[in-house]
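User: Please predict the structure of the protein below. I'd like the answer in structure-token form so I can feed it into my own downstream comparison script.

Assistant: Understood. Taking the following sequence of 438 residues as input:
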Amino acid sequence: MKPLQVGLLGFGVVGRGTWNVLRRNEEEIARRAGRPIRIAAIATRDLAKASDALDGVTGVRLTADASEVVHGPGIDIVCELIGGIEPARSLILEAIALGRHVVTANKALLAEHGTEIFAAAHAKGVMVAFEAAVAGGVPIIKALREGLTANRIEWIAGIINGTSNFILSRMRETGASFETVLAEAQVLGYAESDPSFDVEGIDSAHKLTIMSAIAFGVPMRLDKAYAEGITKLTREDLRYAEELGYRIKLLGITRRARNGIELRVHPTLIPAKRLIANVEGAMNAILVKGDAVGSTLYYGAGAGAEPTASAVIADLVDVTRMHTSDPEHRVPHLAFQPDQLTDLPFLPMGEVETSYYLRMRVDDRPGVLADITRILADRDISIDAMIQKEPSEGEDQTDIILLTHRSVERNVDDAILRIEALPTVRGKVVRIRLEDLG
């Protein structure tokens, strides 16, 4: 059978990984897809490097002009691995307008413009596949769209940024500061020279936005996502969390609440007994809670050349199997039929209800704790656990650490302002959210 022709946009780490895995497993992939899949054209800025990587394989057009690949003769699928918003958005929309299927690993593009792209694809009757956009080689998109389709998804909580997870794991293991471990991560290649997208939670927010849309049948709403990173976490807080039986992870959480959908990324205390709390290094893990299946956990490499290529090629196989089928009988891009998406409200952080870790530096004198607990009680915030550290020799200040029961965030915000105003409290209150994930 005639091979399906792929035009590859971008030949960086993932592009080369896709080429290598396709070549290595060519026969196995063709058996699964029902026909061979061939990369017929590659757009890349470094033509010489790409030519070397092809290792003598002929019949592949190399060009520096991505549009030439999109418009090239005989291309069935355009595989976008450029990243970023432009020119990726324009190239994908061009491919769709030409009636060509699209595979992409571009989470930022989909989180910001996915609604527009999927609408264009639906109108043209083509597929946009994006398994590699979330958690690299972990097949979470397929699980949410197909494997869990019988379920009413209740919540998703995921470690979906390997850089941040590596940093937090090393801080806990070594007791080193954030700055020290970040420098180590950069040397090892886990962190970029500008790591802000990873450590500030932006990358996780992109991925969470995509998963939330699939889980709840809503449009992509990145503008509603709350993102807080790990840059202010200290080794003291990781140590105190451990004493209380918790680990701190950067979690992306989306939940169907009573009055809307939560969409938030932030450092989170998780009970150490939970499997997800024990995911270390640069690995990813995602917990999904469905009403019928209960909790399911998806774990694996969230980045890297071949793990991500694994997801890209899975999409290529899916498109190959389905490209001749009636568009109305394909799996919808966001799991729900396009006319069945709902515009549910997204909750601002002030309306989110969760538990909290609060750490404060206070004068070591009678009545301080009573003043703090009174402020909390006045705002319907009850205490679940507490540690009051003994002051070091010669010091007259100490740390108080409180864990609260579930409370509304705006009440906690107000309580923190009142506590910080007490003359016996020194500096800012450290607040980290807590999720049981039971």
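That's the full token string. The longest helix spans residues 107-124.
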